[in-house]
Amino acid sequence: MRLFSDITDITDGIDSNVWRAIDRAIEKNSFESFRVLKSFVRQILQLSVRNNSPKHFQRYIFFPSYFYSVSYEKAKRNTALSALHKTCSEQAAMHLKEVIWFDIGYEGRKHQSIEEKKTTNHFYYWGFQGFSRLLFYIVKNGDINQFRFAMDEYEQISEGNYNQHFQLKWNIRNLERENTDGKNDDIIKEKKEELKVLKEFDNYKRHVLTGIKYWIFFLYQVNKINEETASQFLERIKIPYTDSEDLLKDILFFRGNAINYYMGWNEWDYTERHSGKVYSPPTPYQWMTSGFFADQIREKRFYVNVNELDSEEISQARFLYDELKRNSEFYETNFEKWKILLLVNNIEELQEKSKEILKDFAIVKRKSITDTDKDIALAPLHQPFVANFKKTIGDAWKSQARIHRMFRHFGNTVNVNNQDIELKHIGQRTFFEKAKMMFTEQNNQMIYGVDRMGGEKGRWEDNYFFSVIRQTEFNKVSGTNVLEVLNEALTELNKKQIIPSLILVAPEYSYKDDKFLMSERFVSKMKEPQSENELAQFCIGTYDGIPVYTSLSDLLNNTILVCNFNHAFQMLYKTNPNWYEDVLTVDVIEVTDNEAQRILEENRAKWTTLEDGGILTDEEALLLIKTSVIIDIWTTIEFKVLNKEAYIIGYIKSETEE
Amino acid sequence: MNLFRSNSNWLRHKTIAYLKEKHLALFEPYHKSSIRYFRNFISDSKQWWFVLLFVISLFTISPFINFDFLNFLEISSQTAIYIVDQRTANIATIISITLVVVGFILNNLAVKSPLVYGLLFRKSLLYPIIYLTLSVIGIFIVVSTLRDTLSPFTFTRAVLTGTYLAIIILFLIGMLFRTVFLFSNEKEIDKMLEEELIIEAKNNLKRILIKKHSEELFVSLMSEKGAKEYDWSEAWGSVELSTIKVKEVSTDEIIKHKEKVIHDINLDCISNFISKKKATEQIFYRKLGLETTTTEVNNFVWEKSKANTKWEKKKLRSSLSLKNKPKKEKDNEAMRKFFDQKLEQLSEQDKHRNIEQHLESYIKLYELQMQNQK
Q1: Is the ipTM of this complex over 0.85?
Q2: pLDDT of amino acid A657
């Protein structure tokens, strides 16, 4: 609540009156009054989005988290209120979800220009902050059931125009691929700015989860929650990382200056402070870093490519290394306390993992150019290592490019080598700093986790597929759970006399939805082994005899695809004997002199400044640049919808009141 | 005076024109607003003199005017003498019954609060009707006393006027009953209160906007003229400590600087003032806006490190139209306060249906604010 009145606002003060009324309604156990007041709050939020008034939005967006928190406190003292508390907490998560997803999303879709999108992002930011606050209260109360419910709601939130964002990303990657002489520099810069705006939604959504996750680690560190609760909470948090670079960007962002006021994290505190005593609340800067380290050990998902960073971020990254090192020492000394949460069996494993993570970050700590660097810069690529790398990347790609393999399996593909058709390149050209050491005969060193680059491209392919099939007009159904949606989709297809051959769901459904798993029509592959084929690995069973597959694409969250795969879609592709299994381009290219020069011009400060403030000469900097390599990874394909009647996309929405 | 200022030399006119373009929803059509203004004026309990003067003047001019359509009644002076007492008694009876009935209804008002009483008095025109009736009775008493003094014609005319007025009073009392009865219905009262809330909010919003936009217009004019807003950072370095002299200010001078409210600003005057200055140094100004209270009324534009002359101060003063600061601030938020209290009561009593309706009024306020805040 605010302390100062705003004399230029005729509604000033209504919010605190309404809040008092809500408080009283909860106190009096009055469902009806609560319902009325809660819908008022929602209406104001809607109005403020529609009329573009962030001021009023901010005044009301925290109300849902207050319902939850206040009703929890009151129900603790008076058990008669527990039913109302349940309603309050469910409504809190549900409303926040709907505000972000429907209310802001609906208005947001009307706006197309970048400036307008920025305004929408502003609302998203506050919306997510509201949700973040709710999660904070839930964790504070150790309320694991409510946490699961809230996370279910949270995961449903989507922006709805992922396509645009996806197209743009693809566009940039393409431009970068062709940008060997720097002709696309300007347009890439412009598009990247645009992408930054479009990505904000995903960033906020991810940051809320990261924030609460790291906070849980912190609470455990200060003994505010026990091990069991903490691991229950942590198990339920899944952070969607579509791009590996996001992770690095995130941690650097969390350590930047903006963090002090971001998402209200600076207000998070784990204990009631006595008045009159001087104290400093936990600083996000610190607990975010130690949480990050703990999370890395727990989840293990990292490879570093510092190319994307600007010099400000690079300097942040250098301090990060020292901080992480302190953290690794901390976890090692307190190994017994942490081993369960960090999911490590023995101290050796912890040390091993810490070492790998620290190694990644050591790259950004640029001391000076050494003789080893010079040797690496001048050495040729050792072909066996390159071939080996291609295979690693290829295997990783293959394990994730599920849609691609489905097409190959079902055979609805056309090889267009001989035709003059432009296909899409799904993948990326990456400038990988300091990575040449992976490919030189002497001084050879592996970089941990690079295979993920391959897996990532595989997921992009799946993403691209889902974005293509949603671009054209398509048939859709919706329902409140998987079974309902599935049955409806099957009936629809039946009406059109189309025999479905495949169902695609997100992998969570192999364990998450009991109703679905217990259904008689579903036969799990555990019970009845399927015929072994190359898709068996991501088949979870059959439903009505139709195989159910999973894909790792984020675009599949809360949706289901039911189709006759052969009739509905087609994949065009090109092959080349030099590519991995003839389809995946993996190339490792040395940085030429010209290119090195261009990269140096682009960001001179970054390449010439040393950690201790010293300056490299141009020759030295060029050598340094040449310790990097350029890695191309992409497939050359295109997906086509042959018959839009032959597939249905089902949306799962949780029940909503209004 | 206002009439002279309705051109774009004057800030108020400019601001209002701008607001009418951008925020038309806040403005009522002219005839509606003037009727409302008159009603509010007449229904104030302090306006007894206006009604009395009106009635006296009617009686006074009655011998001199001659409307043909009112002349179909033939009353001889004898009849007039005969009926004058009766009319007085009639009106007295009517008013006494009226007061009893109104008193009874007031007792049984659905919502009892000073604000609702005030609203009832205003809406039903109770005060002016009572004043009118009393004035008519008073004058009838005077006329009947003067029956032998006045000429038969004047006397007859006076009685006739009184009779017509008595008939009008009957109608007015009928209207009064109709409105007063509405007040026994809570829903009707809520409707009226909401209406009042919105009117109040619109007025407040208008005042906020006038202040804001007038400041903006003022600032844009000044920057057009190359002047710069003065702030404390300008003083840094320009003042050497040794040159500061403490000047004694007499009590008279302090009193002279009484707080005034700016009603209007003549933009033309000020821009001429700046142009004529032919300044070599930067010109500074202090930001002014309509409805702002200030003491700085003759020295708000000056050239850097150069004081204005007396003549210049006079010119600056004359470009402003000022009002005295009202001794008692009018409560501009009476309705809001009432609504806020009401919400508190309703939630205390857990009346969710009423709360719902109540919140709808708040939503209207929010809509108004959000749509007009830019």
Answers
A1: no
A2: 41
Q: What is the mean pLDDT of chain A?
A: 83
pLDDT above 80: residue B160: yes
Q: Do B370 and A10 touch (CB under 8 A)?
A: no
Q: Which residues contact B352 (CB under 8 A, 6 or more apart)?
A: A30, A32, A33, A35, A36
- Give the helix, strand, coil percentages of chain B, each rounded to 5: 70, 5, 25
Closest CB from B344, B347, B365 relative to A10 = B365
Q: What pLDDT score does A658 carry?
A: 40
DSSP helix/strand/coil, B101: helix
Band of the pLDDT at A70, cuts 50, 70, 90? very high
Task: Give chain A positions within 8 Å (CB) of B350.
Answer: 25, 28, 30, 32-33
| Set of chain B residues whose Cβ sits within 8 Å of the Cβ of A44 | 363, 366
Q: Is A8 on the interface with B (CB under 8 A)?
A: yes
Greater confidence (B306 vs A622) lies with: A622
Instruction: Quote the minimal CA–CA distance from A10 to chain B in Å.
Output: 6
Tens digit of each residue's pLDDT (9 = 90 or more) over A16-43? 999 999 999 999 899 999 999 999 999 9
Put simply, the answer to whether A36 touches B359 (Cβ < 8 Å) is yes
Provide, as residue numbers in chain A, all residues whose Cβ is less than 8 Å from the Cβ of B373. Answer: 8-9, 53
Cα distance from A14 to chain B (closest Cα, Å)? 7
Q: Tokens standing for B177?
A: 């009953």
At A302 the pLDDT is 60
Q: Please answer yes or no on whether B370 and A18 come within 8 Å at the CB atom.
A: no
Angle between helices A31-50 and A14-27 (to 10 degrees): 150
Among chain B residues, the shortest Cα distance to A18 is held by B343
Those residues with Cβ within 8 angstroms of residue B342's Cβ, 6 or more apart along the chain or in another chain: B358
pTM, two decimals, is 0.78
Q: How far apart are CA A647 and CA A650, in angstroms?
A: 10
